[in-house]
Amino acid sequence: MTDTHVVILAAGKGTRMKSADPKVLHRAAGSSLIEHVLRAADTLRPSTTVVVVGHMSDRVKAALGKRPGLRFALQEPQLGTGHALLQAEPHLAGRSGTVVLLSGDVPLLRPATLRALVETHTARGAAATVLTARVDRPQGYGRIVRDDSQRGQRGRIAAIVEEKDATAAEREIGEINSGIYAFALEPLFTALKSIGATNAQGEYYLPDLVKIYRERGLAVETVSLDDPREILGVNSRRELADMTAILRSVRNEELMASGVTLIDPASAWIGPDVTVAADTVIHPNVYLEGRTRIGARCEIHACVRIVDSTIDDGVVIHNFCVIRESHVRTGASVGPFAHIRPQSEVGEGAHVGNFTELKKTTLGKGSKANHLSYLGDATIGENVNVGAGTITCNYDGTHKHATIIEDGAFIGSDSQLVAPVRVGKGAYVAAGSSIVEDVLGIARGKQVNKDGWAARRKKGKG
Ligand code: UD1
Ligand code: CA
């Protein structure tokens, strides 16, 4: 096994995005472009991964800084793709093996394609292997120029010519350079230094390496792509939208193949790091984002957004709910119109009904908060009934305070629990109470009748 190293070019400006953000940080189908590339690159289990940054390098580094083991090389100024790769040299000095070169703005590349590229490259003992594709509209791409073909055999790759430097005949060539390559590490950096910049753009072109290698008698191979969509890059908002649609449909096809029902795949938005188990049904306009995990046999109704949350098996999420950084346990039901905010937990078989908000709150097994409640900083036990309109008054203007409701308690409708407060096991809070002290048996806010008050008030006014 030879070592594999990945270098991702992400220093370019991306002028056509017309954006104050770096191009590779634009998001498509739930991840930034460069995260899609890194996800594919990681499947090669590289010993080294280097991202070449330049334009707005601090932003790109900050966005990727949390990924362990990632190295950055700074390219300043940006003098072309050959010059960009050269900047990775200090990170690869003294290493051996294969360098896989990727572009930070080409997010559709499949792991299987990368594997095929590396396998062909090593099997043939090549110095460089270029991933190529045949396309109907090769405009804008570098063209693959081959030696004269012999006896029906396709000629070997001789050079890559950029569109702007190509002759009319070369522009007719339909085979293009994907900008993705495998290189043997050993001759690479010495050869890169011999690339010149006498071309239409005055840049150091990485593809010039092909001609240099061939002249030096080093083997250059190609691998052709079956689906040329894989190497599409993003240069504009239009292309970003197209890419998003493709990424989404690829992901949705995978999910359906694994046993998930998507009622309307065109409006299911399921992020790349989300998992969904079999026999779950997802209705239209559902957004599943971040590290969300959905169990088996769940039903997620229309217009629901779930972010970084765990939903266990057999859960029903009714229409129009937002759930973030929370856990909904087996057999629970949530919504319609519920808001589950971070660090909340809905227990096994529990019910959260319409217009109920949970924040940093645990609702125990079998408990119900079915209507119009705010439950914040609350720990609620099992089989508790939280009546309609119950409010935990958790904030005194300065600090947040906790509410504890123990197993089997009953909170009558329209009650306020002024925290810190505790309702004991099996205790009752009568409807319409404002509770400021712990309740152990039953409590009710005291009603004061003032005889003739209404009449006196009217008189006073009239
Ligand atoms: C490049 C190839 C072309 C190929 C095409 C495939 C060259 C000269 N041409 O053209 O043969 O068909 O990709 O998409 O390589 N970058 C840097 N630093 C630089 C310049 C570019 O990091 O100084 C990065 C860009 O951010 C981008 C990648 O390299 O991620 C490709 O650069 P780009 O300018 O888009 O090259 P193309 O003109 O598309
Ligand atoms: Ca490009």
Q: Radius of gyration over alpha carbons?
A: 31 Å
User: Which band does the percent of strand residues land in?
Assistant: 25-35%
Poorly predicted segments: none
Number of strands: 41
Instruction: Please state how the strands of the largest beta sheet are arranged side by side.
Output: 12-15-18-21-24-27-30-33-36-39-41
How far is it from the N-terminal to the C-terminal residue, by CA?
Answer: 97 Å
The helix/strand class is alpha/beta
Name the hetero compounds present. Answer: uridine-diphosphate-N-acetylglucosamine, calcium ion
What is the helix tally?
A: 10
The portion of residues assigned to helices is 10-25%
Describe the protein.
This protein is of the alpha/beta class. Helix content is 20%, strand content 29%. The strands form seven sheets. The chain has an eleven-stranded parallel beta sheet with strand order 12-15-18-21-24-27-30-33-36-39-41, covered by helices on one side. The longest helix has 21 residues, at 237-257. The termini are far apart. 42% of the residues are buried. Calcium ion is lined by residues 233, 235.
